[in-house]
Amino acid sequence: MPALAAASLIVGIWWAVTAAGLIGPYLLPGPGEVLGRMLDQAATGVAWRYLAPTLTAAVLGAVIAVLVALPLGVCIAHSRVLAAVVEPFVALSQTVPLVAIAPLLVLWIGYGTVPIAVLCAIVAFFPIVTTTVVGLRSLDMRVVENAMLDGASGWQRLVHIEAPMAAPAILAGVRGGVVLAMTGAVVGELVMGGTGMGTLLTLSRDAADTAGVFAVVAWVSISALILHGLVTLLERAAVNRLQGESS
User: Fold this and answer.
1) Sign of CA dihedral 39, 40, 44, 47
2) What are the CA-CA distances from residue 93 to residues 13, 71, 100 (Å)?
3) Nearest to 173 by CA among 65, 81, 31
4) pLDDT per residue as tens digits for the range 1-59
């Protein structure tokens, strides 16, 4: 409710400013005009035709990031030597701009969904591996030591003790990574081309269609919110299951 109230206030101010003519429609179209454009795009199928490739690349990239970041985060958390070697490179991966990485991916992989998905994976990788390491390093070591005294192997400790205790932090990173993957998909399409929302954004920009640009931003934001909500539901169910609670 607070978020809905804040959103309503923002839209109300937006409508008042545009209705009063304080800002021209070329710079800031009214919310009604943007909503009308979105409804037209939904009715004609334009929205889904451009959303589908972007969502596909974002989800594929998030899956790749999870498959790489989770095992790496576990290894970093359990090995000081590996942490000293790998952690600087993990941080370095976030200092290179996406627009600089995208042309390299085109040269190495080519065009299409795969290089965009790889770019999404690069964006989503950092929060997932970081929260995995932080979650495993912040465990109550008394519990882990008791498991060791009971003769639990390293794998048993990871599966039955460490993973359930660190699950909230790890899955929070996954949630953030999935949302960032959506951003990576749009940026990838802007730089590398494609058939997704980044392409529609480029077409709207080149046509000086401000309402179209706002509509694309709204579609991307709504899609990211839906992905965030779905991952949140999966996160709650996974945490309850891992921690032995009823889901």
Assistant:
1) negative
2) 39, 17, 12
3) 65
4) 787 888 889 989 989 998 888 888 888 898 999 999 999 999 999 999 999 999 999 99
Burial class (CB in 10 A: 0-12, 13-18, 19+), 47: buried
Task: Please state the φ and ψ torsions of residue 140, each to the nearest 5 degrees.
Answer: -75, 105
Whether 12 maps to a domain, the answer reads no
Per-residue pLDDT of 80-111, as tens digits, reads: 888 888 888 888 877 888 888 888 888 888 88
The answer to whether residue 221 is domain-embedded is yes
Q: How many whole angstroms separate alpha carbon 208 and alpha carbon 202?
A: 10
Query: Within a 10 A sphere around the Cβ of 28, how many other Cβ atoms?
Result: 17
CA angle (126 as vertex; 122, 59 as ends), nearest 5: 50
Q: What is the pTM of this model?
A: 0.85
CATH number at residue 155: 1.10.3720.10
- Total domains in the chain come to 1
Domain that holds residue 58: 31-242
In a domain, residue 222? The reply is: yes
Query: What one-character-per-residue DSSP string does 168-196 give?
Result: HHHHHHHHHHHHHHHHHHHHHHHHH--SS
Q: Are 228 and 84 in contact (CB under 8 A)?
A: no
